[in-house]
Write a structure and sequence with these properties.
Distance between the termini: 111 Å
Structural class: mainly beta
Number of strands: 31
Number of helices: 4
Strand content: over 45%
Oligomer: single chain
Protein backbone atom coordinates (compact mmCIF):
# COMPACT_ATOMS: atom_id res chain seq x y z
CA UNK A 1 0.00 0.00 0.00
CA UNK A 2 1.29 3.47 -0.91
CA UNK A 3 0.98 5.97 1.93
CA UNK A 4 0.08 9.56 0.94
CA UNK A 5 2.59 12.32 1.62
CA UNK A 6 1.72 15.58 3.40
CA UNK A 7 1.92 17.57 0.15
CA UNK A 8 -0.42 15.20 -1.66
CA UNK A 9 -2.90 15.28 1.24
CA UNK A 10 -2.94 19.09 1.19
CA UNK A 11 -3.32 19.02 -2.59
CA UNK A 12 -6.26 16.62 -2.46
CA UNK A 13 -7.81 18.51 0.47
CA UNK A 14 -7.88 21.64 -1.69
CA UNK A 15 -10.05 19.67 -4.12
CA UNK A 16 -12.54 18.54 -1.48
CA UNK A 17 -15.37 20.49 -3.10
CA UNK A 18 -14.22 19.71 -6.63
CA UNK A 19 -14.73 16.65 -8.80
CA UNK A 20 -12.34 13.79 -8.06
CA UNK A 21 -12.29 10.89 -10.53
CA UNK A 22 -12.88 7.39 -9.17
CA UNK A 23 -9.67 5.45 -8.49
CA UNK A 24 -10.32 2.88 -11.22
CA UNK A 25 -6.81 2.90 -12.64
CA UNK A 26 -3.17 2.94 -11.67
CA UNK A 27 -0.07 3.80 -13.68
CA UNK A 28 2.39 0.91 -13.76
CA UNK A 29 4.95 3.07 -15.55
CA UNK A 30 5.00 6.66 -16.79
CA UNK A 31 7.48 8.53 -18.97
CA UNK A 32 6.96 12.28 -19.32
CA UNK A 33 8.83 14.07 -22.12
CA UNK A 34 8.84 17.88 -22.02
CA UNK A 35 9.99 19.45 -25.30
CA UNK A 36 11.38 22.97 -24.84
CA UNK A 37 12.87 23.32 -28.33
CA UNK A 38 10.09 25.67 -29.44
CA UNK A 39 8.73 28.92 -27.95
CA UNK A 40 5.88 26.95 -26.42
CA UNK A 41 5.92 23.77 -24.32
CA UNK A 42 5.06 20.36 -25.76
CA UNK A 43 4.52 17.41 -23.42
CA UNK A 44 4.22 13.73 -24.31
CA UNK A 45 3.29 11.05 -21.80
CA UNK A 46 3.77 7.33 -22.40
CA UNK A 47 1.71 5.63 -19.68
CA UNK A 48 1.00 1.98 -18.90
CA UNK A 49 -2.55 2.12 -17.53
CA UNK A 50 -4.06 -0.77 -15.57
CA UNK A 51 -7.67 -1.19 -14.55
CA UNK A 52 -7.73 -1.95 -10.81
CA UNK A 53 -11.53 -1.82 -10.49
CA UNK A 54 -13.70 -4.92 -10.31
CA UNK A 55 -15.62 -4.01 -13.47
CA UNK A 56 -14.84 -2.82 -17.03
CA UNK A 57 -14.14 0.92 -17.20
CA UNK A 58 -14.15 3.16 -20.30
CA UNK A 59 -13.57 6.65 -18.82
CA UNK A 60 -10.04 7.69 -17.89
CA UNK A 61 -9.18 11.15 -16.52
CA UNK A 62 -6.13 13.22 -17.33
CA UNK A 63 -4.68 16.35 -15.76
CA UNK A 64 -3.67 19.16 -18.14
CA UNK A 65 -2.99 22.90 -17.77
CA UNK A 66 -5.88 25.35 -17.64
CA UNK A 67 -7.79 26.06 -20.83
CA UNK A 68 -6.40 29.59 -21.12
CA UNK A 69 -2.96 28.07 -21.82
CA UNK A 70 -3.58 24.70 -23.43
CA UNK A 71 -3.39 24.46 -27.23
CA UNK A 72 -4.46 20.83 -27.55
CA UNK A 73 -4.72 17.55 -25.65
CA UNK A 74 -4.67 14.35 -27.72
CA UNK A 75 -4.63 10.70 -26.72
CA UNK A 76 -4.08 7.46 -28.58
CA UNK A 77 -3.08 3.88 -27.96
CA UNK A 78 0.65 3.30 -28.29
CA UNK A 79 1.37 0.52 -30.75
CA UNK A 80 4.34 -0.39 -32.91
CA UNK A 81 4.05 1.23 -36.33
CA UNK A 82 1.96 4.08 -34.95
CA UNK A 83 -1.35 2.38 -35.79
CA UNK A 84 -2.89 2.77 -32.34
CA UNK A 85 -6.50 3.85 -31.92
CA UNK A 86 -7.17 7.56 -31.42
CA UNK A 87 -9.31 8.29 -28.36
CA UNK A 88 -11.86 11.04 -27.84
CA UNK A 89 -10.65 13.74 -25.41
CA UNK A 90 -13.11 16.09 -23.74
CA UNK A 91 -12.49 18.80 -21.17
CA UNK A 92 -14.45 18.32 -17.94
CA UNK A 93 -16.50 21.49 -17.51
CA UNK A 94 -18.94 22.73 -14.91
CA UNK A 95 -21.86 21.97 -17.21
CA UNK A 96 -21.14 18.29 -16.54
CA UNK A 97 -21.68 18.87 -12.84
CA UNK A 98 -17.94 18.94 -12.11
CA UNK A 99 -15.73 21.80 -10.97
CA UNK A 100 -12.30 22.23 -12.51
CA UNK A 101 -9.17 22.53 -10.45
CA UNK A 102 -8.62 25.71 -8.39
CA UNK A 103 -7.03 28.52 -10.37
CA UNK A 104 -3.85 28.53 -8.28
CA UNK A 105 -3.15 24.90 -9.14
CA UNK A 106 -3.17 25.63 -12.88
CA UNK A 107 -4.62 22.24 -13.88
CA UNK A 108 -8.00 20.78 -14.79
CA UNK A 109 -9.40 17.40 -15.81
CA UNK A 110 -9.84 15.98 -19.30
CA UNK A 111 -11.91 12.88 -19.93
CA UNK A 112 -10.44 10.26 -22.28
CA UNK A 113 -13.01 7.76 -23.56
CA UNK A 114 -11.99 4.26 -24.60
CA UNK A 115 -14.21 2.79 -27.37
CA UNK A 116 -13.89 -0.62 -25.71
CA UNK A 117 -13.97 -0.66 -21.89
CA UNK A 118 -10.83 -1.90 -20.20
CA UNK A 119 -11.49 -5.18 -18.38
CA UNK A 120 -10.41 -5.68 -14.73
CA UNK A 121 -6.59 -6.09 -14.43
CA UNK A 122 -6.21 -5.36 -18.16
CA UNK A 123 -3.40 -3.00 -19.21
CA UNK A 124 -3.23 -0.40 -21.98
CA UNK A 125 -0.25 1.66 -23.15
CA UNK A 126 -1.48 5.19 -23.66
CA UNK A 127 0.20 8.17 -25.33
CA UNK A 128 -1.09 11.60 -24.33
CA UNK A 129 0.26 14.70 -26.10
CA UNK A 130 -0.38 18.32 -25.24
CA UNK A 131 0.98 21.79 -25.95
CA UNK A 132 0.73 24.92 -23.83
CA UNK A 133 1.41 28.56 -24.71
CA UNK A 134 2.88 31.27 -22.48
CA UNK A 135 4.54 28.59 -20.34
CA UNK A 136 8.13 29.87 -20.50
CA UNK A 137 9.50 33.33 -19.74
CA UNK A 138 12.75 35.20 -20.55
CA UNK A 139 15.29 35.38 -17.73
CA UNK A 140 16.82 37.91 -17.66
CA UNK A 141 13.95 39.99 -18.95
CA UNK A 142 16.23 42.37 -20.91
CA UNK A 143 19.32 41.62 -22.98
CA UNK A 144 21.65 43.73 -25.17
CA UNK A 145 21.33 43.58 -28.94
CA UNK A 146 23.83 40.74 -29.42
CA UNK A 147 23.27 39.13 -26.01
CA UNK A 148 22.27 35.52 -25.42
CA UNK A 149 18.62 34.88 -24.69
CA UNK A 150 17.69 32.54 -21.83
CA UNK A 151 14.23 31.18 -21.11
CA UNK A 152 12.99 29.63 -17.87
CA UNK A 153 10.51 26.81 -17.38
CA UNK A 154 8.80 25.97 -14.06
CA UNK A 155 7.15 22.70 -13.10
CA UNK A 156 7.10 19.92 -10.53
CA UNK A 157 9.26 16.89 -9.90
CA UNK A 158 6.40 14.43 -10.47
CA UNK A 159 4.02 14.31 -13.39
CA UNK A 160 0.49 15.55 -12.54
CA UNK A 161 -1.68 12.48 -12.20
CA UNK A 162 -5.21 11.63 -11.10
CA UNK A 163 -4.11 8.09 -10.25
CA UNK A 164 -1.49 6.23 -8.24
CA UNK A 165 1.81 5.91 -10.14
CA UNK A 166 4.24 3.08 -9.38
CA UNK A 167 7.24 4.25 -11.44
CA UNK A 168 7.98 7.40 -13.41
CA UNK A 169 10.63 9.59 -14.93
CA UNK A 170 10.71 12.98 -16.67
CA UNK A 171 12.88 13.91 -19.64
CA UNK A 172 13.40 17.53 -20.78
CA UNK A 173 14.54 18.18 -24.35
CA UNK A 174 16.26 21.54 -24.85
CA UNK A 175 17.52 23.47 -27.86
CA UNK A 176 20.99 24.12 -26.44
CA UNK A 177 23.44 22.49 -24.02
CA UNK A 178 23.91 25.90 -22.36
CA UNK A 179 21.88 25.30 -19.18
CA UNK A 180 23.20 27.63 -16.45
CA UNK A 181 20.51 26.91 -13.83
CA UNK A 182 18.63 23.69 -13.06
CA UNK A 183 16.91 22.50 -9.89
CA UNK A 184 18.37 19.35 -8.36
CA UNK A 185 16.54 16.88 -6.11
CA UNK A 186 17.60 14.56 -3.29
CA UNK A 187 18.17 11.76 -5.78
CA UNK A 188 16.22 9.06 -7.55
CA UNK A 189 15.54 5.42 -6.74
CA UNK A 190 18.85 4.43 -8.36
CA UNK A 191 20.80 6.68 -5.99
CA UNK A 192 22.21 8.72 -8.89
CA UNK A 193 22.34 12.48 -9.26
CA UNK A 194 19.06 14.02 -10.24
CA UNK A 195 18.70 15.21 -12.93
CA UNK A 196 21.15 13.46 -15.25
CA UNK A 197 22.55 15.60 -18.08
CA UNK A 198 23.19 14.17 -21.54
CA UNK A 199 23.92 16.79 -24.20
CA UNK A 200 20.81 18.92 -24.62
CA UNK A 201 18.63 16.65 -22.45
CA UNK A 202 17.89 16.41 -18.72
CA UNK A 203 16.35 13.34 -17.08
CA UNK A 204 14.65 13.36 -13.67
CA UNK A 205 14.04 9.98 -12.02
CA UNK A 206 13.22 7.16 -11.97
CA UNK A 207 11.03 7.64 -8.92
CA UNK A 208 9.18 5.04 -6.90
CA UNK A 209 5.47 4.77 -6.02
CA UNK A 210 3.51 8.03 -5.67
CA UNK A 211 -0.12 8.62 -4.75
CA UNK A 212 -2.60 10.51 -6.89
CA UNK A 213 -1.99 14.25 -6.70
CA UNK A 214 1.66 13.97 -5.63
CA UNK A 215 3.69 16.90 -6.99
CA UNK A 216 7.08 16.58 -5.34
CA UNK A 217 9.60 19.40 -5.37
CA UNK A 218 9.11 22.52 -7.54
CA UNK A 219 11.73 22.52 -10.30
CA UNK A 220 12.97 25.21 -12.69
CA UNK A 221 15.28 25.05 -15.69
CA UNK A 222 16.94 28.08 -17.29
CA UNK A 223 18.34 27.41 -20.74
CA UNK A 224 19.62 29.26 -23.78
CA UNK A 225 17.03 29.62 -26.51
CA UNK A 226 18.52 30.32 -29.92
CA UNK A 227 15.95 32.15 -31.96
CA UNK A 228 13.02 34.54 -31.47
CA UNK A 229 9.97 33.80 -29.32
CA UNK A 230 7.29 34.62 -31.87
CA UNK A 231 3.60 35.04 -31.14
CA UNK A 232 0.76 36.19 -33.38
CA UNK A 233 -1.57 38.00 -30.99
CA UNK A 234 -4.11 38.14 -33.81
CA UNK A 235 -4.27 36.10 -37.01
CA UNK A 236 -6.81 36.15 -39.85
CA UNK A 237 -6.81 33.75 -42.79
CA UNK A 238 -9.15 34.08 -45.77
CA UNK A 239 -9.59 31.26 -48.29
CA UNK A 240 -11.68 32.04 -51.38
CA UNK A 241 -12.87 29.32 -53.76
CA UNK A 242 -13.52 30.12 -57.42
CA UNK A 243 -14.96 27.31 -59.56
CA UNK A 244 -15.09 29.52 -62.64
CA UNK A 245 -11.43 30.50 -62.42
CA UNK A 246 -10.24 27.15 -61.04
CA UNK A 247 -8.40 29.08 -58.34
CA UNK A 248 -7.93 28.94 -54.57
CA UNK A 249 -6.91 32.36 -53.24
CA UNK A 250 -5.38 32.64 -49.76
CA UNK A 251 -4.62 35.78 -47.78
CA UNK A 252 -3.22 35.84 -44.24
CA UNK A 253 -2.95 38.85 -41.91
CA UNK A 254 -0.61 38.78 -38.91
CA UNK A 255 -0.27 40.98 -35.85
CA UNK A 256 3.13 39.70 -34.72
CA UNK A 257 4.93 40.16 -31.40
CA UNK A 258 8.33 39.03 -30.20
CA UNK A 259 7.59 38.01 -26.59
CA UNK A 260 11.18 36.97 -25.82
CA UNK A 261 13.82 38.94 -23.92
CA UNK A 262 13.27 42.69 -24.41
CA UNK A 263 15.98 44.69 -26.20
CA UNK A 264 18.06 46.63 -23.70
CA UNK A 265 19.14 50.08 -24.86
CA UNK A 266 18.99 51.41 -28.41
CA UNK A 267 19.02 49.52 -31.69
CA UNK A 268 22.21 49.88 -33.76
CA UNK A 269 21.82 49.24 -37.49
CA UNK A 270 25.60 49.03 -37.96
CA UNK A 271 26.00 46.46 -35.21
CA UNK A 272 23.08 44.52 -36.61
CA UNK A 273 24.58 44.35 -40.13
CA UNK A 274 27.92 43.19 -38.72
CA UNK A 275 26.35 40.48 -36.60
CA UNK A 276 24.36 39.15 -39.57
CA UNK A 277 27.58 37.43 -40.73
CA UNK A 278 29.40 36.74 -37.44
CA UNK A 279 26.32 35.81 -35.36
CA UNK A 280 23.55 34.59 -37.69
CA UNK A 281 21.38 33.27 -34.81
CA UNK A 282 19.55 36.11 -33.10
CA UNK A 283 16.66 36.64 -30.68
CA UNK A 284 15.18 39.02 -33.29
CA UNK A 285 12.85 38.01 -36.11
CA UNK A 286 14.96 38.45 -39.25
CA UNK A 287 12.97 36.30 -41.65
CA UNK A 288 10.04 33.91 -41.82
CA UNK A 289 9.58 30.99 -44.22
CA UNK A 290 6.32 29.61 -45.59
CA UNK A 291 6.32 26.11 -47.07
CA UNK A 292 3.38 26.05 -49.50
CA UNK A 293 1.66 23.72 -51.95
CA UNK A 294 3.71 22.99 -55.11
CA UNK A 295 1.10 24.73 -57.34
CA UNK A 296 1.36 28.02 -55.41
CA UNK A 297 1.86 31.15 -57.53
CA UNK A 298 1.40 34.95 -57.42
CA UNK A 299 2.73 35.26 -53.86
CA UNK A 300 2.85 38.76 -52.31
CA UNK A 301 3.98 40.41 -49.06
CA UNK A 302 2.71 43.77 -47.80
CA UNK A 303 2.55 45.68 -44.53
CA UNK A 304 0.91 48.87 -43.27
CA UNK A 305 3.17 51.01 -45.47
CA UNK A 306 2.63 49.06 -48.68
CA UNK A 307 4.37 46.41 -50.76
CA UNK A 308 7.54 44.97 -49.20
CA UNK A 309 10.18 44.06 -51.77
CA UNK A 310 12.33 42.08 -49.31
CA UNK A 311 10.77 38.71 -50.04
CA UNK A 312 11.84 35.70 -52.05
CA UNK A 313 9.52 33.17 -53.69
CA UNK A 314 10.65 29.85 -55.10
CA UNK A 315 8.04 28.05 -57.17
CA UNK A 316 7.37 24.41 -56.43
CA UNK A 317 7.16 21.45 -58.73
CA UNK A 318 3.86 19.61 -59.04
CA UNK A 319 4.27 16.18 -57.57
CA UNK A 320 7.65 17.23 -56.17
CA UNK A 321 9.06 19.94 -53.95
CA UNK A 322 6.91 22.51 -52.15
CA UNK A 323 6.94 26.19 -53.02
CA UNK A 324 8.78 28.42 -50.52
CA UNK A 325 8.01 32.01 -49.62
CA UNK A 326 10.71 33.75 -47.54
CA UNK A 327 9.75 37.14 -46.16
CA UNK A 328 12.08 39.68 -44.52
CA UNK A 329 10.40 42.39 -42.39
CA UNK A 330 11.37 46.03 -42.95
CA UNK A 331 13.27 45.91 -39.65
CA UNK A 332 14.44 43.13 -37.28
CA UNK A 333 11.72 42.47 -34.72
CA UNK A 334 13.50 42.36 -31.34
CA UNK A 335 11.96 41.36 -28.00
CA UNK A 336 9.08 43.65 -27.06
CA UNK A 337 8.64 44.84 -30.67
CA UNK A 338 5.61 44.31 -32.93
CA UNK A 339 5.12 43.99 -36.67
CA UNK A 340 1.92 43.66 -38.71
CA UNK A 341 1.91 42.30 -42.25
CA UNK A 342 -0.10 40.48 -44.91
CA UNK A 343 0.90 37.61 -47.19
CA UNK A 344 -1.13 35.94 -49.90
CA UNK A 345 -0.95 33.56 -52.84
CA UNK A 346 -3.00 31.58 -55.37
CA UNK A 347 -2.97 27.87 -56.06
CA UNK A 348 -4.76 25.41 -58.32
CA UNK A 349 -8.24 24.55 -57.06
CA UNK A 350 -8.09 21.09 -58.63
CA UNK A 351 -5.54 20.00 -56.00
CA UNK A 352 -7.99 20.66 -53.15
CA UNK A 353 -11.46 20.18 -54.65
CA UNK A 354 -13.20 16.87 -55.31
CA UNK A 355 -16.59 16.30 -56.92
CA UNK A 356 -18.43 13.70 -54.82
CA UNK A 357 -21.43 13.46 -57.11
CA UNK A 358 -23.25 15.62 -59.63
CA UNK A 359 -23.57 19.09 -58.07
CA UNK A 360 -21.90 18.11 -54.78
CA UNK A 361 -18.31 19.00 -53.87
CA UNK A 362 -15.82 18.53 -51.04
CA UNK A 363 -12.79 20.71 -50.48
CA UNK A 364 -9.89 20.14 -48.09
CA UNK A 365 -7.83 23.13 -46.97
CA UNK A 366 -5.21 23.42 -44.20
CA UNK A 367 -6.33 25.24 -41.07
CA UNK A 368 -2.85 26.81 -40.87
CA UNK A 369 0.07 27.20 -43.29
CA UNK A 370 2.20 29.68 -41.35
CA UNK A 371 5.89 29.61 -40.39
CA UNK A 372 7.44 27.15 -37.95
CA UNK A 373 7.90 27.85 -34.23
CA UNK A 374 4.98 30.23 -33.93
CA UNK A 375 2.14 30.39 -31.44
CA UNK A 376 -1.20 32.08 -32.10
CA UNK A 377 -3.41 33.75 -29.53
CA UNK A 378 -6.57 34.65 -31.48
CA UNK A 379 -7.25 32.86 -34.78
CA UNK A 380 -9.99 33.43 -37.36
CA UNK A 381 -10.18 31.36 -40.55
CA UNK A 382 -12.76 32.36 -43.15
CA UNK A 383 -13.64 30.04 -46.03
CA UNK A 384 -15.48 31.89 -48.80
CA UNK A 385 -17.55 29.51 -50.92
CA UNK A 386 -18.87 30.18 -54.43
CA UNK A 387 -22.03 32.22 -54.81
CA UNK A 388 -25.07 29.99 -54.55
CA UNK A 389 -23.43 27.20 -52.51
CA UNK A 390 -25.94 25.49 -50.17
CA UNK A 391 -26.32 22.55 -47.75
CA UNK A 392 -22.90 23.32 -46.30
CA UNK A 393 -21.25 20.83 -43.93
CA UNK A 394 -17.96 21.47 -42.09
CA UNK A 395 -15.56 19.05 -40.38
CA UNK A 396 -12.61 20.45 -38.40
CA UNK A 397 -9.48 18.65 -37.11
CA UNK A 398 -10.08 19.95 -33.57
CA UNK A 399 -12.85 21.81 -31.71
CA UNK A 400 -13.43 25.39 -32.92
CA UNK A 401 -16.23 27.94 -32.84
CA UNK A 402 -18.14 28.07 -36.12
CA UNK A 403 -20.35 30.81 -37.55
CA UNK A 404 -21.94 31.47 -40.95
CA UNK A 405 -22.52 34.67 -42.88
CA UNK A 406 -23.02 36.01 -46.41
CA UNK A 407 -20.74 38.62 -47.93
CA UNK A 408 -21.23 40.49 -51.19
CA UNK A 409 -18.20 41.09 -53.37
CA UNK A 410 -17.93 43.03 -56.62
CA UNK A 411 -20.50 41.89 -59.20
CA UNK A 412 -22.19 39.48 -56.77
CA UNK A 413 -25.97 39.15 -56.82
CA UNK A 414 -27.00 37.11 -53.76
CA UNK A 415 -23.59 37.08 -52.04
CA UNK A 416 -21.10 34.34 -51.18
CA UNK A 417 -21.54 32.05 -48.15
CA UNK A 418 -18.75 32.44 -45.59
CA UNK A 419 -17.78 29.83 -43.00
CA UNK A 420 -15.84 31.43 -40.13
CA UNK A 421 -13.84 29.26 -37.73
CA UNK A 422 -12.47 30.82 -34.52
CA UNK A 423 -9.98 29.38 -32.04
CA UNK A 424 -7.54 30.47 -29.34
CA UNK A 425 -4.10 29.26 -28.35
CA UNK A 426 -3.09 27.52 -31.57
CA UNK A 427 0.48 26.39 -32.27
CA UNK A 428 2.33 25.57 -35.46
CA UNK A 429 2.13 21.85 -34.63
CA UNK A 430 -1.34 21.81 -36.21
CA UNK A 431 -0.05 23.06 -39.59
CA UNK A 432 -1.30 20.86 -42.38
CA UNK A 433 -4.34 19.58 -40.47
CA UNK A 434 -7.23 19.99 -42.85
CA UNK A 435 -10.70 21.47 -42.69
CA UNK A 436 -13.21 19.64 -44.89
CA UNK A 437 -16.16 21.56 -46.34
CA UNK A 438 -18.90 19.78 -48.30
CA UNK A 439 -21.44 21.83 -50.28
CA UNK A 440 -23.82 21.68 -53.22
CA UNK A 441 -23.49 23.93 -56.26
CA UNK A 442 -25.75 23.68 -59.32
CA UNK A 443 -24.61 24.25 -62.90
CA UNK A 444 -26.59 27.48 -63.11
CA UNK A 445 -24.83 28.78 -60.00
CA UNK A 446 -21.45 28.11 -61.60
CA UNK A 447 -22.50 30.31 -64.53
CA UNK A 448 -23.96 33.05 -62.33
CA UNK A 449 -20.83 35.24 -62.22
CA UNK A 450 -19.90 35.13 -65.97
CA UNK A 451 -23.55 35.74 -66.92
CA UNK A 452 -23.73 38.64 -64.46
CA UNK A 453 -20.58 40.14 -65.97
CA UNK A 454 -21.86 39.56 -69.50
CA UNK A 455 -25.20 41.14 -68.59
CA UNK A 456 -23.48 44.17 -67.08
CA UNK A 457 -21.30 44.63 -70.18
CA UNK A 458 -24.33 44.24 -72.48
CA UNK A 459 -26.34 46.76 -70.43
CA UNK A 460 -23.44 49.23 -70.56
CA UNK A 461 -23.21 48.88 -74.37
CA UNK A 462 -26.97 49.33 -74.79
CA UNK A 463 -27.08 52.40 -72.55
CA UNK A 464 -24.08 53.89 -74.37
CA UNK A 465 -25.74 53.21 -77.73
CA UNK A 466 -29.00 54.84 -76.61
CA UNK A 467 -27.26 57.91 -75.24
CA UNK A 468 -25.24 58.13 -78.45
CA UNK A 469 -28.44 58.33 -80.50
CA UNK A 470 -30.06 61.02 -78.37
CA UNK A 471 -30.09 64.52 -79.73
CA UNK A 472 -29.21 66.68 -76.76
CA UNK A 473 -28.98 69.94 -78.73
CA UNK A 474 -31.16 72.81 -77.54
Amino acid sequence: MILPTLSSLLFLASLASAFTPPANFKHSNLLRTIDLTKPYVRETYAVVVQNIADKPVSEYYWLAPRQDKVAYVEAKEKKSGGNGAVFEVERVVEDDGYDHFPEDEGYEYYRISFPTPLAPSEKLTLTVSSATVDSVSPHPYQIPQNGKQYLQWHGYQFAPSAYETEKQRTKLKLKSADIPDVTTTDGNTEGAEDPVRAGTALTYGPYGPQVAGAKGKPIAVRYEFQGPVVKATKFERDIEISHWGGNLAVEERYWLSNVGAVLKGYFSRVQYQQSAYTQPISSAVRSLRYSLHPTTRNAYFTDEIGNVSTSRFRAGREGGRNANLDIFPRYPVFGGWNYSYTVGWDQDLSQSLKQIEDGKYAIKVPFLEGPESMQYEDVKVRIVLPEGAKNIQVATPFPVKESRSVHKWFMDTIGKPVVELSAQNIVDDVRGREVVVIYELGKWEMLRKPMTVAGAVFATVVVSFIFGKLDLKI
